Amino acid sequence: MDSQLLALIDLQGLDTRIAALEADAARLPKQIDAIHAALAEAKKTVETLRAKADTAKKDLRTKEKDLEVITAKRTRAEARLWEVKNNTEYSAVLAEIEAIKQEKAKAEEEILAVMELQERLAVDIRDSEARLKGSEAEARQNEAVVRKKLAAVEQELAGVRGERESRAREIPKSLLVDYEKILRARGGVAVAVVTTSAICGGCRVAIRPQAIQELKAASRLMVCESCGRYLYWQESA
Ligand SMILES: [Zn+2]
């Protein structure tokens, strides 16, 4: 096979590897971001629950003070029962005490509801803190794995780029410029295979029988008439 064609095939192989490695090098940091985002979400869940518990605590304090006020009001009303002058006043104070009792029952019910909420929140906080702890350990592990992968990808990328550079030096400048132009214009594929199915491996357009004969002979560099990619012949794999 023509040595220039061989060099182009090699170069294409290296450029395809570089493109795949570059895609990995771009994708892996996003995985790390996703790991951090998931962890931040778990932290936020704990913080939100803690804030709710704080609110409940303040709410309870307010309601307990309200209850003290109501209790004092009842004591005063009961004391007034001894001071009333007639039955009408007596009935009025009794009605007042009855109303205060209801008020007190309602306040006690509310306090109970807040205490129940506090119990539920305490359980939720314990659960979410345990989950967060697990997530943190898992995230550390996952991030270490991804960072190791990323380092390996970057190392390999540097190696392949170096290989590519030295291989490119063996190709005449004008051919290399042409190859790189096609590479950019044709989605990273400048060299396409043609097998016994007789279609361009790049654009899937049929290759003329005469051109197939020339390709098999590989006496000169040929390009696809449809997409302009360099072509080479290979018996079906
Ligand atoms: Zn083509």
Describe it.
A hairpin with a 6-residue loop joins strand 2 and strand 3. Helix 1 runs antiparallel to helix 2. This protein is rod-shaped. It is 77% helix and 4% strand. It has 2 domains: 157 residues, Helix Hairpins (Orthogonal Bundle), CATH 1.10.287.1490; 56 residues, no CATH class. It is built from 4 helices and 3 strands, in the order αααβαββ. The mean pLDDT is 95. A 3-stranded mixed β-sheet has the order 1-3-2. The longest helix is centred in the middle third of the chain and has 83 residues. With 237 residues, the protein is mainly alpha-helical. Bound molecules: zinc ion. The site of zinc ion has 9 residues, from loops. The site of zinc ion (ZN) has 9 residues, from loops.
Task: Provide the fold topology.
Blueprint: H1 3-80, H2 87-169, H3 173-185, E1 191-194, H4 209-217, E2 222-223, E3 230-233
Parallel strand pairs: 1-3
Antiparallel strand pairs: 2-3
Helix pairs in contact: 1-2
Zinc ion is lined by residues 192, 200, 202-203, 205, 224, 226-227, 229.
